[in-house]
Automatic annotation (TrEMBL):
CDD domains: PLPDE_III_AR
Record keywords, A-Z: Isomerase, Pyridoxal phosphate
Functional pathway: Amino-acid biosynthesis; D-alanine biosynthesis; D-alanine from L-alanine: step 1/1
Record protein name field: Alanine racemase
Family: Belongs to the alanine racemase family.
GO molecular function terms noted in the UniProt entry: alanine racemase activity
Keyword Transmembrane: no
Active-site residues, Swiss-Prot/TrEMBL: K52 (proton acceptor), Y268 (proton acceptor)
Keyword hit for rRNA-binding: no
Length: 390
C-alpha cells in the first residue's frame, strides 16, 4: 500500500530555480521605462497599457502592479477573467475588455467595474439592457474586418443614442509599416466616424501607431508589444535602433553534453545529420516551454514547410552563438556547441535563449514568426524571477 502524499512532498510554487529546466527573468524596471518612453511619444494623449495574454507572457499581476506604480491608469485585456485579475492588481484603474461582451456577462462586468469594448449592435443593445448606465467602449471597424461596428452601424448607433460611452476606438491594420497607404485611410476614416460621438475620448494607436509620422494619438494610446521590449519601429527609414529596453531574459539548463561522429543524426525523425565530429548539448526546454517547433534546424530529410523564410533557432553558449540541431521535442532541444571551447561549457550550465544579442525580434525571425508569438508562448515551467521596480 502506497503511503499518502504529504504536503511537504509536493513541489513548491513558485518553481525554484535549482529544480527548473530554465529561468525566465522579467525586468519590471525596463517594462516601466518602456511605458514612460511610450507616454512621452504619445504627446498630449494618455498612455495606457495592453496586458492581455498574461501581459504578453511576462505575468499579468506583477506587470499591472508595476505599471500602476509607474503611473499607468488604464489597462486593456482580451478576456473578462483577465480584466478581473487586472482590477485586483490595480483596483482604481480603468480596465477595458477588447474582445467585447460575452452573452449574459453584462451585469457581472458592470458590477466589477469592467468596461467591455462593444463591437456589434447586438452587444451594444445587451450592455444597455443588462448594465444600465454603466460605461463601456465602442469599437468601430476601419479596415481590419474583424471586430467592430461598420461605418453604417456606427452612424445608426450615434443617431439613436448609445448610452454612456467612455471611449471610441479602432485598430490599425499595418501600423508597423509606416509607408503603407492603409494607415492614412484608417486615420481619415476613424477621424470621420469618431466625430459622430462628440465629447467621447478616442483611441487608435497601438505600439507602432504611436511612432507613425502622422502622430495619430487622439486622446488615448494603447501600447502592447513595445512595452515588453519588442521593436515598435522595425520598418522606419532610415533605420533606427529599437527605442525599447529588453524586458525578458530566458535561460535553459544543459542536461548533457556528448560528442557524436560524422553522419550521426540528432532528434526525432533524424532530420539533422552531423557533417563531421560535432559536440551536442541537450537543453531542458522544448515546445512545451514555448520554444517553437518551427525553430528546429534540419539538414536532411523532408524540407522545412513554413510560410516565412528563417534560419532556425540558436542559443548563446559561453557567449558563442550556437545553432539548434534537429527537431525540437516537447521537453528537450539539442544545440551544436562544437564552436565553444570545451573547457567553457559543462552540464548544468545555463545558456541564453532570449537575451543579449538574441533579442525577442531576432529569436522570432529565426523561427519564421513574430515576437508577439515568441513572448506569448513562454511556458509555465520556468522559474520566474522579477527584477527592477517602477
Amino acid at each position: 500500500m502506497l503511503d499518502p502524499v504529504k504536503a511537504g512532498d509536493i513541489a513548491p510554487d513558485p518553481i525554484s530555480a535549482d529544480l527548473a529546466g530554465g529561468v525566465l527573468t522579467v525586468d519590471l524596471g525596463a517594462l516601466c521605462d518602456n511605458w514612460r518612453t511610450m507616454r512621452a511619444a504619445s504627446g498630449a494623449a494618455e498612455c495606457s497599457a495592453v496586458v492581455k495574454a498574461n501581459a504578453y507572457g511576462t505575468g499579468q499581476g506583477p506587470a499591472v502592479k508595476a505599471l500602476r506604480a509607474a503611473g499607468c491608469r488604464t489597462f486593456f485585456v482580451a478576456h473578462p477573467h483577465e480584466a478581473f485579475l487586472a482590477r485586483a492588481a490595480a483596483p482604481d484603474a480603468t480596465v477595458y475588455v477588447l474582445n467585447g461582451l460575452p452573452p449574459g456577462a453584462g451585469r457581472r462586468l458592470a458590477s466589477a467595474g469592467v468596461q467591455p469594448v462593444l463591437g456589434s449592435l447586438h452587444e451594444l443593445a445587451e450592455w444597455r439592457r443588462e448594465a444600465g448606465d454603466a460605461p463601456a467602449a465602442l469599437h468601430i471597424d476601419t479596415g481590419m474586418e474583424r471586430l467592430g461596428l461598420t461605418a453604417r452601424e456606427a452612424a445608426g448607433a450615434a443617431a439613436q443614442g448609445v448610452g454612456q460611452i467612455s471611449l471610441v476606438m479602432s485598430h490599425f491594420v499595418a501600423s508597423e509599416e509606416p509607408d503603407n497607404s492603409l494607415n492614412d485611410r484608417q486615420i481619415a476614416r476613424f477621424t470621420e466616424l469618431s466625430a459622430l460621438f462628440p465629447g467621447v475620448r478616442k483611441s487608435l494607436a497601438n505600439s507602432s501607431g504611436i511612432w507613425l509620422p502622422q502622430a495619430p494619438h487622439f486622446d488615448l494610446t494603447r501600447p502592447g508589444y513595445g512595452l515588453y521590449g519588442g521593436n515598435p519601429t522595425p520598418n522606419l527609414h532610415p533605420a533606427r535602433p529599437n527605442p525599447m529596453r529588453p524586458v525578458v531574459r530566458l535561460e535553459a539548463r544543459i542536461l548533457q553534453l556528448r560528442d557524436i561522429a560524422p553522419d550521426d543524426t540528432v532528434g526525432y525523425n533524424a532530420r539533422w545529420r552531423a557533417s563531421g565530429q560535432r559536440r551536442i548539448a541537450t537543453l531542458s526546454a522544448g515546445y512545451a516551454d514555448g520554444v517553437l517547433r518551427s525553430a528546429s534546424v534540419r539538414n536532411t530529410g523532408a524540407p522545412q514547410t513554413h510560410t516565412r523564410p528563417h534560419t532556425g533557432g540558436a542559443a548563446l553558449v559561453a557567449g558563442v552563438l550556437c545553432p539548434f540541431a534537429g527537431n525540437i521535442s516537447m521537453d528537450l532541444l539539442a544545440v551544436d556547441v562544437t564552436g565553444v571551447p570545451r573547457d567553457a561549457v559543462q552540464a548544468g550550465d545555463m545558456v541564453t535563449l532570449i537575451g543579449d544579442g538574441l533579442n525577442v525580434d531576432e529569436v522570432a525571425a529565426r523561427c519564421g514568426t513574430i515576437g508577439y508569438e515568441t513572448l506569448t508562448s513562454l511556458g509555465q515551467r520556468y522559474a520566474r524571477h522579477y527584477v527592477g521596480a517602477a
